């Protein structure tokens, strides 16, 4: 290791905690209709990765959050919904 190099050791538990925090953040920002506060409202690109992010940050019980977001996308952006 050269002077100035930094090594950060993370455990699986560290990653699990980080993923759970991201999930809490995303779920806290989701509205009952499936939209997400803070995303530009009239653009599909603000939403295209949200269902995967919601699903990927928790257990199977979070599928409903991801599905709610997909349903919102289909209603708000019908042309994009056909491709989901």
Helix content: 40-55%
What is the structural class? mainly alpha
Global shape: elongated
Report the total helices: 4
Count of domains: 1
Report Rg: 17 Å
Biggest beta sheet summary: none
Number of strands: 0
Order of helices and strands: HHHH
Identify low-pLDDT runs: none
DSSP strand (E) fraction?
A: under 5%
Gist of the model:
The protein is built from four helices and no strands.
Attribute tags:
single chain, 84 residues, mainly alpha, 0% strand, elongated
Topology:
Elements: H1 12-29, H2 50-56, H3 63-76, H4 78-81
Helix pairs in contact: 1-2, 2-3
Describe this structure in words.
The chain is an all-alpha fold and 84 residues long. Helix content is 51%, strand content 0%. Helix 2 (50-56) packs antiparallel against helix 3 (63-76). It has helices at 12-29, 50-56, 63-76, 78-81. The protein has four helices and no strands. It has one domain (12-81). The chain starts with 11 loop residues before the first helix and ends with a helix.
């Amino acid at each position: 290791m050269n002077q100035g190099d930094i090594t950060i050791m993370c455990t699986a538990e560290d990653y699990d905690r980080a993923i759970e925090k991201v999930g809490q953040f995303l779920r806290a920002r989701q509205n009952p209709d499936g939209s997400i506060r803070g995303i530009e409202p009239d653009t599909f690109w603000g939403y295209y990765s949200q269902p995967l992010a919601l699903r990927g940050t928790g257990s199977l019980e979070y599928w409903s959050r991801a599905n709610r977001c997909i349903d919102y996308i289909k209603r708000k952006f019908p042309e994009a919904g056909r491709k989901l």
